[in-house]
Design brief:
Blueprint: E1 3-9, H1 17-33, E2 38-40, H2 51-55, E3 62-64, H3 79-88, E4 91-99, E5 127-133, E6 139-144, E7 162-167, E8 170-176, H4 183-191, E9 196-201, H5 212-223, E10 226-231, E11 233-236, E12 239-242, E13 246-248, E14 254-257, E15 263-269, H6 271-280, H7 289-292, E16 301-304, E17 312-314
Helix pairs in contact: 1-3, 4-5
Length: 330
């Protein structure tokens, strides 16, 4: 019982969409052969983590996404990856810069009296997103990064909602890199019913590298969820990414990790283990709501399920329980 997730790690070549998608196909085949049901790839893997190139509209940096429920047509850059997903019967979660079709709604979010952050969605900016291809080879949907890092805000439009993948009784919340720095983000996924939170990331070497080892086990133990990360690796656009894609169990204990080489690591998300650890560490049920304030209702989430149909938008029940050439390191 459970959902086997392959954390894929390989260097992506900035601006070389064909080469990066060919690497994704190779990793999808390896993940399927190893028995995984889902393959995750790093942040902006399809184009290489280079927001400055996205800002300059360099060819090969963005993808136009088919509508959910459609299979990429022959000749589409995504067609080989969709076929590989269908052949292996796996989900593929691909980090990519995604063009947004048509005019977008404008939304400003800031509580009264709070510091104001510009979350207006402006037409024309792509999303820093993960594209989700389902096990039948159809596009299931996408998650757009909610918390943009520093100068990313000059390049990308922020995401506007939570997205989960649900398969075999397991719910996996999706996040991207800097999202992991916000305890509220993982807590929202837990309250929406997630057994795991999966981050597709691009953490680089440097003096803040230690945060990688702080964020993820903390988010796991705080919420009683598995935390999994597919991280970028190698030299990309002037930065060196350290890899170490890995996973932590719902008590925050490390389960597995790659080094700085290409490969995959498979982790099985077991709802039974999640339930056991939540009984031992009942943080949500013992939270002092009388002292700290009652939690708001769980947010709406888009739930992607293994079919070619369009995703369902549901209100989950409460569980009760341009642009810089180089960006600062997270």
């Amino acid at each position: 019982m459970g959902l086997s997730i392959a954390l894929g790690q390989a260097r992506s070549v900035p601006g070389d969409l064909a080469a990066n998608l060919a690497t994704a196909v190779r990793l999808a085949r390896a993940a399927g052969a190893a028995g995984a049901r889902l393959l995750a790839l790093p942040e902006l893997f399809a184009c290489g983590y280079d927001p400055a190139a996205v800002a300059r509209s360099v060819p090969g940096t963005t993808l136009t996404v088919p509508a959910p429920g459609t299979v990429p047509a022959d000749g589409s850059p995504l067609a080989p990856l969709a076929r590989a997903a269908a052949d292996a019967g796996i989900w593929v979660v691909l980090g990519a810069a995604l063009d947004r079709p048509g005019p977008q709604p404008v939304r400003e979010t800031a509580p009264s009296g709070a510091a104001r952050h510009d979350t207006t969605v402006r037409s024309g900016r792509p999303y820093n997103a993960v594209l989700v291809i389902g096990p039948a080879g159809a596009v299931a949907g996408h998650y757009a990064k909610a918390h943009l890092w520093g100068p990313e805000r000059d390049v990308f439009a922020p995401g506007t909602g939570l997205v989960t993948i649900e398969d075999g009784g397991v719910s996996v919340g999706l996040g991207i890199c800097y999202d992991a720095g916000f305890p509220e983000f993982a807590r929202a996924h837990r309250r929406a019913g997630a057994h795991a939170v999966l981050y597709c990331s691009a953490f680089a070497e440097g003096d803040t590298e230690y945060r990688y080892g702080v964020y993820h086990p903390a988010r796991a133990v705080e919420n009683g969820v598995y935390v999994l990360v597919s991280n970028a690796v190698g030299d990309i656009a002037g930065e060196r990414y350290f890899g170490r894609s890995g996973a932590w169990d719902p008590a925050g204990r490390p389960l597995t990790a790659l080094d700085d080489a290409e490969g995959i690591r498979i982790v099985t998300v077991d709802p039974g283990e999640t339930a056991r650890i939540r009984r031992e560490l009942p943080y949500l049920t013992e939270l002092r709501a009388d002292l700290l304030g009652a939690a708001s209702p769980p947010p709406d989430a888009i739930r992607l399920r293994p079919s070619a149909a369009a995703p369902l938008t549901t209100v989950p029940p409460s569980t009760g329980d341009t642009h810089a050439a180089r960006l600062p390191r997270r």
